[in-house]
Write a structure and sequence with these properties.
This protein has 430 residues and is an alpha/beta fold. It has helices spanning 25-36, 50-57, 86-98, 135-151, 156-162, 182-190, 228-240, 259-268, 281-288, 320-325, 339-348, 378-384, 398-402, and strands spanning 17-21, 40-44, 61-64, 78-81, 102-105, 118-122, 125-129, 166-171, 193-196, 213-216, 244-249, 273-276, 302-306, 329-333, 356-361, 369-374, 391-395. A hairpin with a 7-residue loop joins strand 15 and strand 16. The longest helix is centred in the first third of the chain and has 17 residues, at 135-151. The chain is elongated and about 85 Å long.
Length: 430
């Protein structure tokens, strides 16, 4: 049988009976794939794993809690013999052969009439790989093909020509190109025009096909900046000209990214627009730096605030006194320039000046560094460390959770089943 290659065929099992004999971990891995293609899955086994039992309870599969009977394969289109008993698997295989039902054998592929390929799907394409009974190799080849399809490096040129004009807002995440979403990377590869700012993962721009036009709309802090109105005009104008536009920015489009202004501009012009979210830097950057924004027994909430306006500015919409009274974590974005004023406002509002602060500079990028400080000395520490944007400022006792050695005076109640509250005011944690 080693000399006979397999004949690959896509089985359409929707609303067709498929019998899985066995209720262990092998069956647990096979059943969800069968459910996903719409098969009527029947499990025959005296016992099943909790996960399979959950599928039964949800009405997704039928379970016969007994041993296998040849008649179980009557009116069946496909069978899987997945028990740990070779004799039972041989009975299943023989019963399937007698009924001309293709059967997969989990214990002995050479005695089976069908093999399960490594399967992957993306955007209407199904990839199935058989590595001649080398499952790890099959999975690796499948993964490489699917990743290339997802990234747009395989088949992207053909697809770009078939896409309808419009705008895609792509959130690029905190900066590391590996942290952009699969959908975001694919949208970039399919675009005719990429409108990017400086905080979007810059390495990805080098992966763009050579015929993709790049438009720079960088906004420098207190420096050169493309007006939002101009950005809106560019993306709308290009889409109306019949091009596929990817508006590429750092973080998430809707977390201080002015993304919804661009959505409104597109809708008013009748331009199709969709959004691909990105990892918000407010959460992702502290996480990569090893700082949780919440922690059991320490912080039950976190607040993300824009620091591009100082607290006393007439256009500021933040209630700094209310913010200062909260017990949890405050994450400030775009706040380096106004960090001193923000710290002073929070201290004036009641936050302890000894409150731990971490400033993560160039988060997820090669030059990432974390500056530890306290609320009362934040302005001086940032000046001494020459901190410049971009940086994420994390304020609260969670900083001491990540760096207890730097804050020996901060008492923390950690990792206890009954740890549900922070210590009261006056202990340096509020």
């Amino acid at each position: 049988m080693d000399d006979f290659p397999t004949y690959l065929s896509g089985l359409r099992l929707h609303d067709r009976r498929v019998v899985v004999v066995g209720g262990g971990h092998v069956a647990q891995r096979r059943i969800p794939l069968l459910i996903a293609v719409g098969a009527r899955v029947v499990v025959v086994s005296p016992d099943v794993t909790p996960a399979i039992e959950g599928l039964v309870g949800g009405g997704e599969v039928t379970w016969h809690a007994r041993g296998f009977d040849d008649a179980d394969l009557d009116d069946t289109w496909y069978a899987v013999a997945a028990t740990d008993d070779q004799a039972v698997n041989e009975r299943v295989s023989a019963a399937a052969e007698a009924r001309r039902v293709f059967c997969v054998r989990a214990d002995d592929a050479m005695q089976a009439t069908a093999w399960t390929p490594a399967v992957g799907r993306h955007d209407g394409v199904t990839v199935a790989v058989l590595g001649q009974r080398q499952p790890r190799r099959s999975a690796l080849v499948r993964d490489e093909i699917v990743e290339a399809l997802q990234a747009g490096t395989l088949g992207a040129v053909h697809e770009r020509g078939e896409r309808t004009p419009g705008v895609v807002l792509v959130g690029g995440g905190p900066g590391d190109p590996d942290l952009v979403s699969v959908a975001g990377r694919k949208a970039l590869m399919e675009a005719d025009v990429v409108v990017a700012d400086r905080l979007a993962p810059r390495e990805l721009l080098g992966d763009l096909p050579p015929d993709v036009e790049l438009i720079d709309v960088t906004k420098l802090p207190r420096g050169r900046a493309a007006a939002q109105e101009e950005i809106n005009r560019v993306i709308v104008e290009r889409a109306l000209a019949g091009q596929r536009v990817a508006r590429f920015k750092g973080g998430d489009n809707f977390v201080f990214g002015r993304g919804y202004e661009e959505v409104i501009a597109c809708r008013e012009a009748g331009v199709p627009v969709r959004v691909i979210p990105g990892l918000s830097s407010s959460i992702a950057v502290p996480a990569v730096a090893g700082i949780p924004v919440t922690h059991r027994g320490v912080a039950h909430e976190f607040t993300v605030v824009s620091g591009h306006l100082p607290p006393e500015h007439p256009e500021s919409l933040t209630d700094w006194k209310a913010l200062a009274r909260l017990h949890g974590t405050v994450v400030a974005l775009m706040a380096v320039q106004n960090a001193g004023a923000i710290a002073a406002a929070m201290v004036d509002g009641g936050r302890d000046p000894r409150t731990p602060v971490a400033v993560v500079c160039d988060g997820t990028m090669p030059g990432e560094r974390t500056v530890l400080s306290r609320l009362g000395t934040l302005a001086a520490d940032l000046a001494a460390q020459e901190v410049k944007p971009p940086a994420i400022i994390v304020i609260g006792p969670v900083v001491a959770v990540a760096h207890p050695e730097a804050y020996p005076d901060v008492p923390l109640v950690l990792d206890r089943p009954d740890a549900h509250t922070v210590p009261p005011r006056g202990d340096g944690l509020v």
